[in-house]
Design a protein that fits this description.
The structure is a single chain. By secondary structure, this protein is of the alpha+beta class. The protein has one domain (3-65): Glutaredoxin, CATH 3.40.30. Helix content is 35%, strand content 18%. It has three helices and two strands. The chain has helices spanning 3-12, 28-33, 60-68; strands at residues 41-46, 49-55. A two-stranded antiparallel sheet has the order 1-2. Strand 1 (41-46) and strand 2 (49-55) form a beta hairpin. The radius of gyration is 12 Å and the shape is globular. The model has no long low-confidence stretch (mean pLDDT 95). GO terms for molecular function: enzyme activator activity; protein-disulfide reductase activity. Residues 1-68 form the Thioredoxin domain. Keywords: Disulfide bond, Electron transport, Oxidoreductase, Redox-active center, Transport. This is Thioredoxin domain-containing protein. InterPro entries: Thioredoxin, Thioredoxin-like_sf, Thioredoxin_domain.
Length: 71
């Protein structure tokens, strides 16, 4: 559901951010480490530090607003 939006944001912010998709089924330790309990969850990091988590299928505008706070 959210993959196309992430792909759009990756192109929109090329050179400013990197997007990674992780399967919590294949990487359960990542889900545990960051407390992911709902899918989809988008976690924003800056300088390797978790800054914000956006939980659920949200509109592109919501993700853009979150991203803009940390650029």
């Amino acid at each position: 559901m959210i993959h196309p939006i992430i792909d759009e944001l990756e192109k929109q912010y090329a050179g400013k951010l990197k997007c990674y998709k992780v399967s919590t089924d294949e990487s359960a330790s990542v889900a545990t480490r960051y407390g992911i309990r709902s899918i989809p969850t988008v976690i924003l990091f800056k300088d390797g530090e978790k800054k914000e988590a956006v939980i659920g299928a949200v509109p592109k505008s919501t993700l853009t607003t979150s991203i803009e706070k940390f650029l």
